[in-house]
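Changelog-adjacent note: as of this version, every example in the card shows the full chain rather than a window. The one below runs 405 residues end to end.
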Amino acid sequence: MNAFRHGHATHPDWRMATELALAQLGDDAVRPSGGPEPLGLVYLTAPLAPHAADVLGLLRQRTGVGHWAGTCGHAIVASGVEYDDEPAIALMRCDLPEGGFQVFSGSRPPPAAGARTASGAVAAQAALVHADPGTPDLAELVEDMAVKVASGMLFGGISSGRVEPLPQIADRVLSGGLSGVVFSSEVDLRTRVTQGCAPIAGEHVISACSSNLIRSLDGRPALDVLLADLGVAEEARTSRDGAALMRALPAERVRAGLFVGLAGGDDAPSRGPRPGFGDYLVRNLVGIDPHNRLVAVAALPREGDRAVFCTRDARAARADLVRACTELRDELETDGLEIRGGVYVSCVARGRALFGGPSAEVGLLHAQLGEFPLVGFFANGEIAHHRLYGHTGVLTLFAGPRDAR
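Full-length structure tokens:
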């Protein structure tokens, strides 16, 4: 991989916003003759979404780059800044190996399983995925897409914004279904999921459950385990009075709600590439039953699944994002790599609402990882690996050797 260049701007006129963003790419905006074809990524806020086709046409005209992918977000991300509910554009030109990517959509499927590039690389190793929120059976489509890439690694999110239809860009403007970019195994991608959670205590194994009810954990009544994890006084834990139990809960720990992280029991706890809450699907804890000593969750758990009770707030979100960045930084350092560019997809409920200020979330990314070209958007749901998430951030980095410039 060679150069990644990016630009971003806000302006009520779509043409001026696009020209201002392109100007930041400088001479590197124009595709050189004879080299591998670059990939362009572009994200628009809702006020510019009706002009998506015009934007795409201007980008091709100014740069000579033919392949572009992106979508619309209520807010979008660029290096060091979040554009929230204002007309804005963020774009990035990615120089990748020959045959290193293919734009896909409903009318253009990804490479077939087992396909190879001219250099012998796996043609479909990982994928950036954009999705329409109105698509039926979206979770199943995401799982099916993950099967189509060799690593099972997807990253991306569901389009957002107060506009219909929500445009996706996949070499043309479209809506509905899935679209994005499939990358070959020659493109080095590193990703982390941050769910903004802090564990209350340790991990448990679900020993009995039905529907959305967890009946027992580690062979003990689930509610008893939850109360013990929360540090509720032992004499109060056995109460069958729901109001009394609620009063006994530590207010400072449950102020932002209670959640449970679930992970398949067949998958050992990850201590390598994806440790921490990236292994868990975090869902709300929606109720307790003091008489039957069970808890209800917004999910369908299975016996043998791993579970951990957790809280989510600004402090936990900052700590978990720092954790994700630290792991990536250490991983790249160990492998002798550097960041060429990145894509960050965060939940519409995060950003300033969770981190307490404009651009605080992406500012923390750069404080931890340094300056690098970054684009992305705030999504109606986030896509990571083979799952749909909520209230998460998905950070994916394009990496390359430090001495390969």
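Structural remarks: The longest helix spans residues 314-334.
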